[in-house]
Amino acid sequence: MQTGSTLRFVEQGMKVFDREHHEIGKVEFVRFGDDDPDTPEVEASGLSDLRDRESSFIDDIARAFHPDDMPEEIRERLLHQGFVRIDANGLFAADRYITPEQIASVSDDGLTLNVTKDELIKRH
Predict the structure, then answer these.
(1) What's the count of helices (H) and strands (E) in the chain, helices before strands?
(2) Most buried among 3, 32, 82, 124, using CB within 10 Å?
(3) What sign results for the dihedral spanned by CA atoms 122, 87, 31, 59?
(4) DSSP conformation class of 19
(5) Is the model more confident about 89 or about 45?
(6) Which residue has the higher pLDDT, 24 or 77?
(7) Distance set, CA 54 to CA 17, 44, 48, 50 (Å)
(8) CB of 81 closer than 8 Å to CB of 33
(9) Mapping DSSP to helix (H, G, I), strand (E, B) and coil, where does residue 26 land?
(10) What's the mean per-residue pLDDT of the chain?
(11) What's the pTM value of the predicted model, to 2 decimals?
(12) How far apart are CA 76 and CA 11, in angstroms?
């Protein structure tokens, strides 16, 4: 499976397991990357339609990162490659971001990573 296209198989609510197969959370949000050939192009039939779609897209991105105080370089990389945001297990556990290359496999059981929870980008 190609790295970018792996995100197509990830669904909201899926369980997420680290490389040692410990459950670390659930998929909260999936964002396909700008460089993913499977990402549909937006075609607007009119100016108001374009504004509505752009606002919706911008709102989606704002919701994905808000209230994160993440360095611009990391934010740009996530937007370009795509990412999965997980709702981490535990009352005080910080949510995390998964990049496509950190995904080992996707199955009916959930999403399995090739890294530990501590190696993921932490949501602040």
Answers:
(1) 3, 7
(2) 82
(3) negative
(4) T
(5) 89
(6) 24
(7) 34, 10, 10, 6
(8) yes
(9) strand
(10) 76
(11) 0.69
(12) 23
Q: Are 4 and 38 in contact (CB under 8 A)?
A: yes
Q: What is the pLDDT of residues 74-83, one digit of tens each?
A: 888 888 888 9
Report residue 84 as tokens: 């999965």
Tokens of 86: 């997980």
DSSP structure string for 60-115: HHHHHHTT----HHHHHHHHHHEEEEEEESSTTPPPEEE-GGGEEEEETTEEEESS
- Residue 110 has which token pair? 């959930």
Q: Which among 30, 53, 52, 58 is positioned nearest to 41, based on CA atoms?
A: 53
Report the chain's terminal Cα–Cα distance, integer Å: 31
